[in-house]
Amino acid sequence: MESHTQGRIVQSFSLLHRVLQKASSSLMPVADLLLRIYVAKIFFLAGWSKTQDWDMTISLFTDEYQVPWFTAQIAAWLCTVAELIFPVMLVLGLWRSLAALGLLVVNVMAVISYYHVLHDMPVALQDHVEWGLMLFLLICQPVQKLSMDYFLNRNKH
User: Fold this and answer.
1) Residue span of the structural domain in which 80 resides
2) pTM higher than 0.90 for the full model?
3) Which of 14, 74, 90, 151 could lock 40 by a disulfide, CB 3.0 to 4.6 Å apart?
């Protein structure tokens, strides 16, 4: 009798596992879209804020951010353009991996350039780590149905 009960428990868990797998694969495109929107919003708003007062943006890149390899003007321009274009691509799912990689580079550069402040602000640094992990996940996971990449690739076959 005990063996019969154990068998039913195993069957129940097996059924539950199959149901959850089916549900998760059905919901993955929605989760992917929501993640893309969430991350894109963060970077797009940062880029948009830079366009609102360009003199202040240049001042921040000159005095506060310590961007290696670029002048303050070039760094400000590159960062702003990246923060405005890549999020739109990400939301649309157009070249999603490239967009996520571009934002990951912006995120890493922000941490490098502003680390002298971020190391004293663990919560702000944690935000950058979490955004980086989300972007890394978007780079690594397969293209999902709710993206332009899916439709473009589907039409190729």
Assistant:
1) 27-156
2) no
3) 90
Using left for φ > 0, alpha for ψ between -120 and 50, and beta otherwise, residue 42 falls in: alpha
CA distances from 54 to 49, 51, 61, 90, 111 (A): 9, 6, 11, 25, 21
Cα–Cα distance measured from residue 83 to residue 47, given in angstroms and rounded to the nearest whole number? 5
Look at residue 22 and tell me if it is in a domain: no
131 in a structural domain? yes
Which is nearest to 114 in space by CA: 74, 84, 81, 75? 75
Render pLDDT for 104-149 as a digit per residue (tens, 0 to 9): 999 999 998 888 788 888 898 899 999 999 999 999 998 899 899 8
Q: Is residue 148 part of a domain?
A: yes
Residue carrying structure tokens 């039913």: 8
Dmax over Cα atoms in the chain, in whole Å?
A: 79
Q: 8 lies in a domain?
A: no
Q: What is the pLDDT of residues 11-65, one digit of tens each?
A: 776 777 777 777 777 899 999 999 999 999 999 999 999 999 999 999 999 988 8
Sign of CA dihedral 43, 47, 52, 55: positive
